[in-house]
Write a structure and sequence with these properties.
Helices cover 48% and strands 19% of the residues. The chain starts with a helix and ends in an 8-residue tail after the last helix. The protein has 231 residues and is α+β, with helices and mostly antiparallel strands.
């Protein structure tokens, strides 16, 4: 017997999501909580596509939103008309890989039971530890300081990830800030120069990102003698 959206929603209600709030969103479920003391909001989203007689899970991720980072970043994202400037987001991590081997096309009641049990295990074993660790801005800064961007255990959400990464280091007075500052901004600058050389005016978006990062970090870049992009 095909399942209904109510069946699906009732199954999700069985999840133990600590003291998080719950709400149904467009093609998904969100579980969220704000910690005013830490200045962090956490959001867990399970997304799906609805078929004729089934629901297909297509996203499962956790996001952390740091007020101190976003309040410094979002005005410039908007100023430079960078896509995502009105969307406050800092760190994300997808947990879809942990769902491998699980039936993601939910068409029977027993599929819901299996999915709920699997998600609960992922919450307990992966997501809560991830949230507990990286809700701490100091822990995020340590990871950024010690690892290359593609080695980080989280994604620094677009737009403007370069500036966001540097803000974590700057706001925590991390000793790696100055070294990472030059490395990061010079790397971005070289990418933009190459992008402009190859694509001309089509690289306008890349140029805006660089200009935003340069303004965001202007005083510190000026102190170390950085040559600002003139293109």
């Amino acid at each position: 017997m095909p399942i209904s959206l109510d069946d699906f929603k009732n199954g999700m209600e069985r999840l133990d999501v600590r003291d998080f709030h719950k709400k149904k969103i467009w093609h998904g479920f969100e579980y969220f909580k704000s910690d005013r003391k830490k200045g962090v909001k956490v959001s867990i989203i399970l997304g799906y596509n609805e078929g004729y007689d089934n629901f297909h899970i297509d996203s499962f991720f956790a996001s952390l939103y740091f007020k101190s980072i976003e309040s410094a970043r979002c005005p410039l994202l908007n100023k430079y008309h960078i896509v995502g400037g009105n969307t406050v987001s800092t760190l994300t991590h997808s947990f879809m890989k942990e769902l491998e081997g699980c039936e993601l096309r939910i068409s029977q009641p027993e599929h819901i039971d299996i999915l709920v049990n699997k998600i609960q295990c992922i919450l307990n074993e992966k997501i809560w530890p991830y949230i507990d660790q990286y809700s701490n801005i100091e822990e995020v800064a340590k990871e950024i300081a010690s690892k290359k961007r593609d080695e980080l255990p989280f994604d620094i959400a677009y737009a403007g990830p370069h500036a966001a990464a540097m803000l974590f280091l700057k706001q925590t007075n991390n000793p790696a800030y100055e070294e990472k500052l030059i490395e990061t901004v010079n790397g971005l600058k070289q990418y933009v120069i190459s992008d402009v050389a190859e694509h001309g005016s089509l690289a306008e978006g890349s140029v805006r990102v660089l200009k935003m990062v340069e303004e965001q970090l202007h005083d510190d870049l000026e102190k170390v003698g950085y040559e600002f992009y003139k293109g």
